Recover the amino acids of this structure.
């Protein structure tokens, strides 16, 4: 065999070896990618399963809910810490407080560590929305279930309009939230047609008795919290619940 032929054969063998190595590397990469996809798929599936759990955070099914005096109570009466929140459905600071404390308070209410009393009031009287939302909530509170009242409370904050455009929210829009909360029935629809003057008078008297001048106003075990920001209130609430007082 000539030198030229030997070199040609060596070149062909080298090319074949490189091709085989490249093929093995591709197969290895494919196997790695497939493995990653399987793991990711398992994580996603597990996450989907967890999120569908009936007692996932934010779900009220594991929390005791009851009707109070113009309020809705979340948690056991035997809880060592009592939190009372005076709020207006149109108040953006109330929504900020809700966003920051809801999951924490519901989880700890389910554990028996705190009872939360939500007391919506009509403080922002410059628009009709605050009163209309409160009247719908009162109708559900009196004529539907405690859970429906709590769900509607949550929905009003999750769908809170801007103050400047609040009156563009129609009664039909509010009625849709009532239905979504599970509070729609003949008695509720009838009650929503006129303002519940007795409920509003009682809420106004409660504001006077407690010296409520702004929202949100929060009491922990009968003592009003003070702070320069919503963050301060959140920290005080969490500390009180964590420490049992």
């Amino acid at each position: 065999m000539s030198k030229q032929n030997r070199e040609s054969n060596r070149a062909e063998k080298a090319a074949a070896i490189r091709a085989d190595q490249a093929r093995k590397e591709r197969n290895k990469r494919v196997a790695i990618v497939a493995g990653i996809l399987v793991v990711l798929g398992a994580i996603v599936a597990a996450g989907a399963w967890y999120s569908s759990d009936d007692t996932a955070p934010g779900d009220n099914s594991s929390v005791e809910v009851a009707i109070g005096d113009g309020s809705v109570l979340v948690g056991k009466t035997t809880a060592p810490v009592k939190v009372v929140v005076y709020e207006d459905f149109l108040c953006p600071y109330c929504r900020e407080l809700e966003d920051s404390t809801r999951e924490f308070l519901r989880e700890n209410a389910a554990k028996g560590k705190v009872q939360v009393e939500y007391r919506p009031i009509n403080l922002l009287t410059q628009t009709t929305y605050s009163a209309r939302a409160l009247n719908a909530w009162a109708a559900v509170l009196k004529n539907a279930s405690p859970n429906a009242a709590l769900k509607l409370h949550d929905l009003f904050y999750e769908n809170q309009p801007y103050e400047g455009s609040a009156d563009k929210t129609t009664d039909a829009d509010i009625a849709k939230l009532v239905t979504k909360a599970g509070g729609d029935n003949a008695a509720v629809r009838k009650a929503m047609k006129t303002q519940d003057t007795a409920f509003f008078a009682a809420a106004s008297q409660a504001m006077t008795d407690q010296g409520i001048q702004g929202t949100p106003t929060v009491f922990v075990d009968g003592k009003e919290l003070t702070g320069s920001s919503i963050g301060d209130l959140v920290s005080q609430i969490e500390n009180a619940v964590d420490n049992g007082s």
In short: The chain is about 55% helix and 10% strand.
